[in-house]
User: Fold GSHR protein from Pachyramphus minor.
Amino acid sequence: QVMWNTAVHAEFIHDHADYGFEIPSVKFSWRTIKEKRDAYVRRLNDIYESNLKKAHIDIIRGYGKFTADPEPTIEVDGKKYTAPHILIATGGRPAVPSESEIPGASLGITSDGFFDLEELPRRTVIVGAGYIAVEMVGILSTLGSKSSLLIRRDKVM
Assistant:
């Protein structure tokens, strides 16, 4: 959301002259937005975790699986937990091809790596056609990175 809003502001600045506004040169600082975005995400995570604790919800981090026990039970890192309501927040990890599948694949980053970038890349290639890929290419392009979107299928459905 923060990066999308950043791109929206960049578009507004780009269009100001069409609406009669004269703006001297405007500089964009990736470092500033990265620091502010990271602080915002940390603050949101703290708020969510605090709200869960206030609601007396236990957070158990680790790799888990459901068991065959008669009551709703999960096992996380060898310890069993039983409760009337269990929420599994699986998270997700992108599939990264091997070097043998795509030479140079190790030079790429995942969408998670986007948040670690210390500066705006001069050029980017986004692989995929999901909403995250389309958002990423739009954001990066709007902020000044020469960006391309590659789709991994012969046809778009």
Q: What stands out?
A: Residues 32 and 119 are 10 Å apart (CA to CA). The mean pLDDT is 89. The first strand starts at residue 64 and ends at 66.
